Amino acid sequence: MLSQKQRERYTDVLLWGLGIARRQRFRRGDLIQIRFDPPGLALAETIYRRILQMEMNPVIRMNPTASMDQGFFEMADRRQLRFNPPGEEEFCRALNGSIIIHAPSSLTHLKGVDPKRIGIAAAAKKRLRDIIAEREAAGLLSWTLGLYPTAALARQAGMSEAAYARQVVKACSLDRSDPVAQWERVFKRAQALKKRLNRMRVVRYRVESETTDLEISAGEKRKWIGVSGRNIPSFELFTSPDWRGTRGVYHADQPSFRSGNRVQGVRLEFRSGRVVNATARQGEPFVRAQLALDEGANKIGEFSLTDRRFSRIDRFMANTLYDENFGGKFGNCHVALGASYTNTYRGRASDLTPALRRSLGFNDSALHWDLVNTEQKRVVAIGPGGRPRTIYENGEFVE
């Protein structure tokens, strides 16, 4: 799917992202995980050699094949669904970096699986995710994630394999002789935008488009983050609001693939912070099952905006990493149901205890599901006293 030169450039960009995402410099002997789906092996091999050249220690973790994955969720009993191998917590506590290559050979193999079974397995991994988040907050670990084009992705996106690969190359700037320089430019522009957004005093945001009219509580001690190296590509700026103030209607016009299910035309009605009604043109039973996954699954965990001037993505890619960074004609906004990002807290990470998280309205859930709206829209920030200020319109941040 990608040439060797493109894989080398992709490796440059992923390692740039891994370094930017970590406050402390990497050192000789650091432990770097390379986790990949089998079709992404060629890129994993290139990254492996580069990490060795950097005198760090690569650890290979290949994800199960689609057949293994399907077999697990169809056959495992509840004990097996909750099983974590011995040493996983110790491994996470020793990890300094993680590069994840998403390269699925199938997007639909789990379609017939009871979502509750998938939810049980996801909840069992939450402790491992918490350890990773703790180390990341302490500056001891960073991660980045990239996508490798596959036939399954191209098929579900309605493109040829060659056309899909070209979209990946374009989105990650792998068609440039120095893609890292381009990412540095995007990073600097995003830093300036975040600084301006974080100077504003905001009580709530209002999102209006043809099918969406949603109010979101900004929350206390929040900040906008994004374009941090954690995802390649990533052009979105986002925050985790106070879930308790969400009200109105949100419509996701972009399809979404999750756990083997294609969902389209999701419409969510919020009242007092919770989804009180959910419909979808396709996949409605799955949507309802996801909302019932746990106590936090029917609440908002993230609010995000992508500036079309940053993103070169202009096609549906059947992958959340790309679809949540859609540029196109009008950029996009998305909300995520489920878990908040605690690194949007404006304060010392060590001060953000579980009790403080709850009191500030940070949502907690095993779910984090991004649902994207690409319509022409306006986003208004409403300050103390009700003063409105447009911050995003026609796909661009208003400067």
Word description of this protein:
Strand 1 (31-36), helix 2 and strand 2 form a beta-alpha-beta unit. The protein has 2 domains: 4-177, 3-Layer(aba) Sandwich (Thermophilic metalloprotease-like); 182-397, no CATH class. The strands form 4 sheets. It has an 8-stranded antiparallel beta sheet, with helices on one face. It has a 5-stranded parallel beta sheet with strand order 2-1-3-4-8, covered by helices on one side. A 5-stranded antiparallel beta sheet has the order 7-9-15-16-17, with no helix packed on it. It is an alpha+beta fold. The protein has helices spanning 4-20, 41-53, 66-75, 78-81, 88-94, 115-124, 126-137, 151-157, 161-171, 179-199, 284-291, 320-323, 354-360, and strands spanning 31-36, 57-62, 97-102, 142-147, 204-209, 213-217, 225-226, 231-232, 236-239, 242-252, 256-258, 261-263, 266-271, 274-279, 300-306, 332-338, 368-373, 377-382, 388-393, 396-397. Helix 1 (4-20) packs across helix 2, helix 5 runs parallel beside helix 7 (126-137) and helix 8 (151-157) crosses helix 9. It is 33% helix and 27% strand. The model has no long low-confidence stretch (mean pLDDT 95). The protein is globular and about 55 Å long. It starts with a helix and ends with a strand.
